[in-house]
Amino acid sequence: MANEGKRATLVKTIKDLVTKYNYDGIDLDFEKFYAKGETRANWVAMKPNWVSFIKELSATLHADSKLLSVTTPPDFDPATKRAGNWVYAWSEIGPHIDRLRIMAYDYSTITPGPIGPLDWTEDAVKFAITQMPASKVFVGIPGYGRDWITKVEGACPTAFASTIIVGGRASLAMRDAVNLASTYGGEAKYNTTFAENSYVYKKPYSDPTNSAITCTATRTVWYPDERSYAARAALVGKYRLGGVAVWTFGKETAAAATAIKNVAKAIAPDVIVSAIATDLEQINYGATFNLTGTFKLPDKTPVAGLNVRFEVKNSTDSTWRSIAVGVTDAAGTITAPAIVAEKSQIRLVSEGSWERLEAKSLEKAINVAPNIMMQLPSSVKATSAYQVKGQIFPKSAGVSVNVKRNGVVIGSYLTDATGGFNFTLIEKEANLVNYQASVAANAKMGAGNSEIYPLLIR
Length: 458
Known about the structure:
By secondary structure, the protein is of the alpha+beta class. The chain is built from seven helices and 28 strands. The strands form six sheets. Strands 12, 14, 15, 17, 18 and 19 form a six-stranded mixed beta sheet that branches. Strands 21, 23, 24, 26, 27 and 28 form a six-stranded mixed beta sheet that branches. Strands 1-2-3-4-10 form a five-stranded parallel beta sheet. A hairpin with a 2-residue loop joins strand 8 and strand 9 (210-223). Helix 1 (4-20) runs parallel beside helix 2. InterPro entries: Chitinase_II/V-like_cat, GH, Glyco_hydro18_cat, Glyco_hydro_18_chit_AS. Keywords: Glycosidase, Hydrolase.
């Protein structure tokens, strides 16, 4: 890790592997951060090298739209006074990874005890979501238990003498732990604090050639079951996590697998927080404006690949109309140009699914001003009459057009069926004046003004 060249080689090797087999990404499971003879004191020097490695690998994988997942042992808020694995630098790698899988197991290894106590697991989760968005965090749950030898009576046969000793231990699949209790009469008790089972049983070991050579081992087993899975899966809904990661699939009982499914079905879909913005809130008829929407989870994680509808509603619509569709990018953003012909309300609506609720942005009002033009000469003779024609767009009959001379209204004229209007202009003496036409706002259009037309009277 400390050697930049070797680090670069490792990054390239991982990238080449992902590319060769077209994987979605890679999961790193680096569980030991000290060599033989080293201690946690070495983590001070290791931590920045690890962070650099993650940043470099992340940049390489994300450039090809590949995922980076990291699996680590638990870490904890120092206030809990639990021994955490702070070398993995959750807060520093958080912006660069797509998933964090917490190995919330192996709490008890040397001596009998729970595999991953529920309160210990929850403390790790609570700390993780302060270090990165909750949607990136996956809680790891064990599909296995452990079986410890706590006492040995008698003289064990040679075949077992080196393994059947006090302190000996073995891992076993969840389903096997259940069967073992039935076989040897172990009475399993569920501990609600740890959310795990335990039982004690005795197993004899005999020499098949000499029944006088025998020993009996007292063994203690701890293992999870369907209640354990349900309790840990419930943390996903409680803290809005990304999900669970099971080590390993196939070791659990059918009931445990069903328990996870049931919790998943009961968890309400994620709420999507949406926002809408435009570069213009008032446009002239026929002009284009740009519409931008953002879609994020409550923890501000962008939601990419979300199907989004652009919807519009004007004064004559009784329902919203979809005018375009699109998909959010990696930043959870969608942008598109839009044109509306009259005053309208615009909103964005994301598609709902079993894992995410439909999201509707706030409505954005777009005011559309009519285009007004007049055919006015640049100069006229004093006392002569001139016919001036004008036009408004969109074409509409019966619209009152005010004509102003130097900012003062001198007459109002109604448009015909084509949106045209006309008036007679007579100036009495030489001068330089300005003419302008305007219309007031109505239910469909905003107020609008033509350009100012200078007129020379000679």
